Amino acid sequence: MAWTRWFFEPGHTGAEFRARHMMVTYVRGQLKNVHGRLQVDPDEPENARVNATIDATQVYTGQPDRDAHLRSADFFDVEHHPTWTFVGSSVHQLSATEFEVTGDLTVRGVTRPVAFDVTYLGQWDTPWWEDGRDRGPRRRAGFKATTRINRHDFGVSWNDVVERGGVVVSSMVDVVVDIEAVLEADEPAA
Hints:
Largest sheet: 8 strands, antiparallel, barrel
Helix content: under 10%
Strand content: over 45%
Radius of gyration: 18 Å
Order of helices and strands: EEEEEHEEEEEEEEE
Structural class: mainly beta
Number of helices: 1
Number of strands: 14
Shape: globular
């Protein structure tokens, strides 16, 4: 096998989630500072290995009071669980650019199996700036991973009732992770 090793560039990798709010619209949140690694043999992508860590303490929705509430024990409990992790266990190739990646997602200390639909967006040789100098080119690859989870499965269960039996926050949460992976320096570009 010709394994290549990639790291997720945290400045250009991020996660976004959205949940229904007050039964009428969606509220979105962002999580930056995503770190991860990918090992893959381009000829046998089904054997790929992936893991990621997300800093939940930096959740951002654009509204400071809501951000503080999300960081509290009502939701993410970042005082006790500052990071979320994903460890992939299987990859199923659906087409040249579409994959299903299954693994264990840990949020709030609770681990559950989750399947991500992953789209491979391509590769490009790009500049690589270090110490004010372009030390490139470096090969980058892009991916978009999506899933839908039930937040109650992870112990994120705060809610309140609104008129006519509605709820403040939906149970189902859509998650999108945009990944920019950089080929490790000691690997040749494909």
